[in-house]
């Protein structure tokens, strides 16, 4: 017989060794079971699992089930170790004491609260088949519940845990996932700034079309101001303060402003929007003053027709954001209306923004 080359002999010996090891089916590493979501966001620093996470539909950590009107948050169980091992089952439980401790202790933030039981469903257990390292399961959220007004602006927190049924030991440090649902981010979605696509002369600075001889007061370009708003010798709506602001101001030698209005009309596609006038240099209104979004109108209502008017969206200057929906392309008039009876009051807006939410439940 011919002698085998030394390299070929080495390869054959290694192959025999590897095959013999595989036959032994030995376990490598520690065969514990755990929740990947408890560690894969923070890298093990904490068990927080924010929802929504991800940047597009390929990596969101939830799946939208429109037919059943559910948001299914993706959770899971996995087993460590080199070999996949035998089948096993874990029980799924929630821990309200943990959440209450985190919320009342201020760890989760002032706007956090325990997720109500009426909002979600979870499986009682999850089976992992033999030869599989893990399995996913859903925390299913009811969309109608999420949209209830009492949850707007809230972060709903739920502690979801796994418990062993005896086959493998649960890794205690990664047995619980703190699911934190940002209701506004999930229901409304990430905001997209579309101000420059639709509105003109939106600030920082605002631009005047004409100025008074004194050089401080002016009339805004691209906006309409009624006679009452032009309270500084026929000029108004603009002040040179802070480089150029949208302004209405009475007192300090200027007359009172009765039913003063500033507005601009645009046509918007169907969608969800927020008109944001919160960037202010000064907010000194004493009498109620309103920020308006008026669909299907080419002006805004008089001051006396704002309260109780279901055809418009209105908010006081103390809460200077309006969120609204359009079912079809619609002309919308945005504006501001005041009725300054008390002396020495007004506002100076630095800029306004219009946001759209293309991802919206």
Automatic annotation (TrEMBL):
It holds the Pfam family BT_3987-like_N. Residues 200-335 form the DUF5013 domain. It comes from the Bacteria. Residues 57-167 form the BT-3987-like N-terminal domain. InterPro entries: BT_3987-like_N, DUF5013. This is DUF5013 domain-containing protein. It comes from Chitinophaga tropicalis.
